[in-house]
Amino acid sequence: MNTVEKDRFKPELKEKQNQKGRFFLLGGVTFTFIIALIGYFIAKLPIFNHIGQMATAILIAILYRQIFGYPTVIQKGITFSSKKLLRLAIILYGLKLNIDIILHDGIGLVFRDAGVIIFSIFGTLYLAKMLKADKEISLLAGIGTGVCGAAAIAAVAPIIQAKDEDTAIGVAMIALVGTLFSIIYTILRPILPLTDVQYGIWSGMTLHELAHVALAADPAGSDATAMALLAKLGRVFLLVPLCFILIYIVNKKKQTNTNEHTKIDFPWFLLGFILMSLLGSYVLGHSIPISDRFMSGVATFTAWCLTAAMVGLGLNISLHDLRTKAIRPLVAMVTISILLSVISFFVVQIE
């Protein structure tokens, strides 16, 4: 075949390659959603209903990797889920943050929440250093404990340039410990010398995920649940300044180590998170009427995107890494979570 004939077939060949690439991209994304769907149904079963869809889906993804290996043929789509869908989920997660409520009713709780975040991050890192634990996983665990669980880990992971497997390990640890603590809270509630409102604040200040807070506070009634979610939203509110602080620290560290003015890529999805927070706080439901059904649908879509993204991350985990890297950070995280619960228990009783 001469050069002219080869050139004539190049556009056709390129189009076939593009179609093949789109097929594998769609296949990989679909694969992560299928595992998320399996996780959804298994999470309806006893025991797993306390763990939740996200953690269940991550466990399925990890088991799949160990049994069948990583599906490299659809890697492009899996990477799309773990990167792009993850950022989309964080942006949409901003709708959960009602800035107006925090500024009017929860500003006092924000200061306590700031103390919770500082204690969780530095406490976890300190124990991790003593235990010679993996620093990156420990940092992610400390941020997840102090702020808002998986969403916080997902938001800061690209800033600190965490490995996918480390991000997934951090999320799995948060899901496990947060679920365990929320169940313990509900068991202890009847015997604790706290009012319903105090119990709600305590739950919102110390538990890891929004779902964990809602699970623990619900038995105490609507007032307790409202205060719990308000306290928790204060921690979500502080995710934004925390991210910008981390950007500054990482950039400073890079300049010190390399003597070059290299900067990490700005996480633009954070601006989307802020925009959605402002939109949900001051526009949707105010200037633009929005039904509760629509907002519930967006929340469900966000949860599915985040779960599919976590599946993508979970497929990068090997059990060997989990055994060697996760145990010590887990010990540090559990210890700090216990200390945080005990200290906050006494703090909430101080009026």
Summarize this, please?
The protein is mostly helical and 351 residues long. The protein is built from 16 helices and no strands.
Strand content: under 5%
Helical content class = over 70%
Cα radius of gyration in angstroms: 22 Å
Order of helices and strands: HHHHHHHHHHHHHHHH
* Outline: globular
Task: Report on the architecture of this protein.
By secondary structure, the chain is mostly helical. The protein is 80% helix and 0% strand. Helix 7 packs across helix 9 (164-188). The longest helix has 40 residues, at 3-42. It starts with a helix and ends with a helix. The mean pLDDT is 85.
Please give the structural blueprint.
Elements (H helix, E strand, L loop, with lengths): L2 H40 L5 H4 L1 H16 L6 H19 L5 H7 L1 H25 L3 H12 L3 H11 L3 H25 L7 H11 L3 H8 L4 H16 L1 H20 L10 H14 L9 H23 L4 H29 L4
Salient structural properties:
351 residues; single chain; mainly alpha
